[in-house]
Amino acid sequence: MDNSLPGAGTDGHLPAGLRTPLRPDAFVKTDAEKIAAIAPHFAAIMQELGLDLTDDSLAGTPQRVAKMYVQEWFKGLNPEHRPEVKLFENRYQYQQLLVERDITLFSCCEHHFVPIVGKAHVAYLPAGHVVGLSKLNRVVQHYARRPQVQERLTRQISEELKQSLGTEDVAVLIEADHLCVMSRGVNDTSSSTLTSEYSGRFATDAALRGEFLRQIGK
Ligand SMILES: Nc1nc2c(ncn2[C@@H]2O[C@H](COP(=O)(O)OP(=O)(O)OP(=O)(O)O)[C@@H](O)[C@H]2O)c(=O)[nH]1
Ligand SMILES: [Zn+2]
């Protein structure tokens, strides 16, 4: 793995602008070492807030949060977790739109470190191969499980699908609620954010795009 490029360890296969910004030494420590290093930092935050870490309900929180960050919320930073996208030969010659809609999406706002919750819809036009359906969900989850902005997340999923499916004909649409908008700051609980990326025939064929949007109920 060439760690000399920013983000290359995780996203070396993506164009530079689409890589999650990472330090060159991002993968020197093991997950266990990262958890051990993060926990005291979170304990320091709690202490500064005035919380009593000897309370039996709070005592384990620094370790819990560190574990949650490394093994759950930010699992997708680790290149070892990049899903293998399994393809099958398209013997049945299915050449129409395939839509995987309403994929559960949990991510984390990289500006405030609070959740982004929503749904992703992805589609492609099969050529020589079809993809194992669950791999579409796995690709979404892999890129969601990082500190993110929705625009980069949308484009990372699109780029990964184009590369793994071997086709430009890919559409991605994400609709999500940002807790940083809902629960603080502007405190708007009714707005949501939609982002999309249309490539190949989805970019040039308005009828195809319309069919995709109709199938996801837009
Ligand atoms: N483009 C984009 N912006 C985001 C995303 N998630 C959060 N933001 C925004 O990032 C911005 C950060 O702005 P700042 O002014 O630095 O932060 P802030 O003072 O907390 O801003 P407010 O949320 O307006 O209170 C806010 O406008 C957020 O709504 C995202 O996925 N994409
Ligand atoms: Zn935010």
From TrEMBL:
Residues 40-216 form the GTP cyclohydrolase I domain. Homopolymer. Zn(2+) binds at C109, H112, C180. It comes from the Bacteria. Its EC number is 3.5.4.16. The keyword ATP-binding does not apply. Keywords: GTP-binding, Hydrolase, Metal-binding, Nucleotide-binding, One-carbon metabolism, Zinc. Pathway: Cofactor biosynthesis; 7,8-dihydroneopterin triphosphate biosynthesis; 7,8-dihydroneopterin triphosphate from GTP: step 1/1. GO terms for molecular function: GTP cyclohydrolase I activity. It is an enzyme of class 3 (hydrolase). This is GTP cyclohydrolase 1. It catalyses: GTP + H2O = 7,8-dihydroneopterin 3'-triphosphate + formate + H(+). Belongs to the GTP cyclohydrolase I family.
